[in-house]
């Protein structure tokens, strides 16, 4: 049984997972951004429409993860997911003629905006928190109305033994992303809302 592992400093780890609903051409992407010993600093759930294939879903999710990292001004990131074909293509520099090539090109463009970026395949067990985020996001309808207590439990499930102090550092806004960090001189670990 493989568990999530914290990134080496100074890297930020971005875990990504998806669910694809072929009968309605929709997908749900979940992203959890962590630093250090499982400290969650950002999360995002997105429902994507007009999706034609599972490969497209995975490529879109990787692109969304990278864009979130760039938007949050991270310089060194490790993107983890359980879709080997997209991760392999993102790590290669050759051009492919598959339907996802446009997304792969966009991924490479976003990669260049970072100082260092690595794509790593992980098992579904190691990516369980992100999987649960996607499932809960989809079941709530719009993919974004998640409750703080559910997310705390979800991340705690996957990070047991990593750091008890950090298990409860998870939250989500009704729309957008909540980011945890030191944003004011007086207060540590404030939550700010990004639109």
Textual characterization of the structure:
By secondary structure, the chain is an alpha/beta fold. The chain has one domain (12-194): 2-Layer Sandwich (Nucleotidyltransferase, domain 5). Helices cover 31% and strands 27% of the residues. The protein has five helices and seven strands, in the order E-E-E-H-E-H-H-E-H-H-E-E. The chain has a five-stranded mixed β-sheet, sandwiched between helices. The chain has a two-stranded antiparallel ribbon with strand order 6-7. Helix 1 (54-71) packs parallel to helix 3 (101-111) and helix 4 (128-139) packs antiparallel against helix 5 (148-159).
List keywords for this structure.
195 residues; alpha/beta; Nucleotidyltransferase, domain 5; two-stranded antiparallel ribbon; 5 helices; 7 strands; disordered C terminus
């Amino acid at each position: 049984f493989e568990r999530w592992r914290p990134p080496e400093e100074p890297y930020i780890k971005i875990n990504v997972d998806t669910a694809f609903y072929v009968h309605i051409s929709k997908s749900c992407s979940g992203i959890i951004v962590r630093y250090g010993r499982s400290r969650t600093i950002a999360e995002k759930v997105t429902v994507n429409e007009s999706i034609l294939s599972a490969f497209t879903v995975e490529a879109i999710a990787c692109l969304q993860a990278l864009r979130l990292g760039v938007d949050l001004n991270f310089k060194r990131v490790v993107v983890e997911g359980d879709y080997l074909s997209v991760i392999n293509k993102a790590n290669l520099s050759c051009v492919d003629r598959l339907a996802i090539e446009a997304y792969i090109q966009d991924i490479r463009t976003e990669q260049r905006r970072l100082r260092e970026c690595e794509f790593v395949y992980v098992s579904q067990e190691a990516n369980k928190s992100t999987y649960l985020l996607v499932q809960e996001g989809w079941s709530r309808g719009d993919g974004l109305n998640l409750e703080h207590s559910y997310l705390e439990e979800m991340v705690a499930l996957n990070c047991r033994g990593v750091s008890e102090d950090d298990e409860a550092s998870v939250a989500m806004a009704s729309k957008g992303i909540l980011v945890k960090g030191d944003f004011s001189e007086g207060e540590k670990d404030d939550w700010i809302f990004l639109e």
